[in-house]
Amino acid sequence: MVSSNPLFRGTWTARKFQATVINDIWPEVLFFTLVATMVVLVTEKTSKDLTVSNQLLTVLGTVLGLVISFRTSSAYERYQDGRKMWTNIITGSRNLSQQIWVHIPADRAGKGAGVANTTVLQNVIEKKTMINLVLAFAVSVKHFLRDEPGPYYEDLYPLISFLPRYANGHEGDESERLPLWQDDDDGDRRPIATPATELNAEEGSSQRTSHDTADPEKGLPLHLPQIPSERPLKPARNPPTPSVYDYIPLLRFFKWVVHTITRAAHPRRHGKKRRRNEYVESHIPLEILLVLSNYTAWCMKNGLLQPAIATGVTANLTTLQDTLSNLERICNTPLPFAYQAHLRMSLWLYLFFLPFQIEKAFIWITIPGTAFAAFLLLGFLEIGQEIENPFNYDLNDLDLDYFCQAIQRELHLITAHTAPNPDEFIFSPLNQPFAPADRRTAQQLVASGAEYSLPSDKEKSAAPPGYASLRRTLVRGWQDVNTLTRQMK
């Protein structure tokens, strides 16, 4: 995400210029500026007067500005909704992982017959594996929103490679391949923009070395297991390769003209229609949620989850499911084309006739005035179109890789928690629970006896030893903290 000026941060590249909308609107701004120049030159240098009445200028400009403002606001609302949904994924992943790691016991002596004989190591491996699947869900959502189908990615495949592949066993028939592993065997929909990947594919390598393209800031492969794959793994980030048409959009028109002429000169022979590829694309985030739901049901069946905790686990799984549906709604529901086309054509007509209406009042200033008006209005319109789908690789899109990295860091933090007995750290010489009123450590307080008393309290009104004295100490602590913190302001 753009948190600071990307043009002057780090090494400057031409791609950073795409963070602005100037790269997309400059041909249109140039065109309307040339129209304004033509109107001014003809009117001022010849006997022809091209000016027209400006009666409709104010009314139409106000209406058009309101419509463009609504267009930009609706697009930014979708942008904000996408960010909120990813916050839900981060929160749900965090809560679900905490519940799995803390509340599902590692020592299962006395539990159901199916789990009583397992070792602590086996149980910890089981819980850590499920938490890795929580991370895999977030990563799979990232690829799903970017229209990158299949499980064969450097940051996804190592997390799910152990899941069942066939309906009837580990080595099953291809016709029984489970939906998770349904993928297009003929190739990818988008070419991989990594030379190392093509080289490994040509050499028939069974595993793609993640060190070739791993980006420590944008990718996850260096921090994941190194699992051999039967197919070359695509990089965690696979943005489309920029071309000259991205920097000079006007050339796309000439490309279309050349393509049309070439196709007319070499007509295609009408033969048998090619059979459409009918592979089934898997919904990997949903598949992962099914595995996690099945694990939750297995834990409840064997008495590993208390009913209240099981309710919380189910609620978090439901939150992830709802969030996935909302993200899919944002990604797959663009504004109607008729609305976008009519708004752009209306703006073009307004900007085209603008110099004819203001030339009499501004004369030569009409040229920069038209250029500024075109830059302003077309810029807002282009911004709305760019942030409408905030899940791609543009510099103004949401940084989904950063979100996945944040989830990965937090899940590793959760699994680093050893869940110790509270007695191991509460009654420590480093703990002063009643400070600042009583600065004795917890160890000293316990050693002083079962009845609490404050030795420094020599007042006659002092409470007798016991719970009353403890309450008095807590009130005094509140008074001290309240006074000291107010003095610091």
Strand content: under 5%
Most strands sheet: none
C-alpha Rg, in Å? 33 Å
Helix content range: 40-55%
Helix- and strand-based class? mainly alpha
Secondary structure: number of strands = 0
Count of helical regions = 15
> In terms of per-residue confidence, which ranges show pLDDT below 50 for 5 or more consecutive residues?
186-220, 269-280
In angstroms, what separates the terminal alpha carbons? 36 Å
Main location: membrane
InterPro entries: YneE/VCCN1/2-like (IPR044669)
Keywords: Cell membrane, Ion transport, Membrane, Transmembrane, Transmembrane helix, Transport
GO molecular function, one term: chloride channel activity
Description:
Keywords: Cell membrane, Ion transport, Membrane, Transmembrane, Transmembrane helix, Transport. GO terms for molecular function: chloride channel activity. InterPro entries: YneE/VCCN1/2-like. The protein folds into 2 domains: 365 residues, no CATH class; 60 residues, no CATH class. The longest helix is centred in the N-terminal third of the chain and has 49 residues. Helix 1 runs parallel beside helix 10, helix 2 packs parallel to helix 12 and helix 3 runs antiparallel to helix 8. The protein is built from 15 helices and no strands. The protein has 489 residues and is an all-alpha fold.
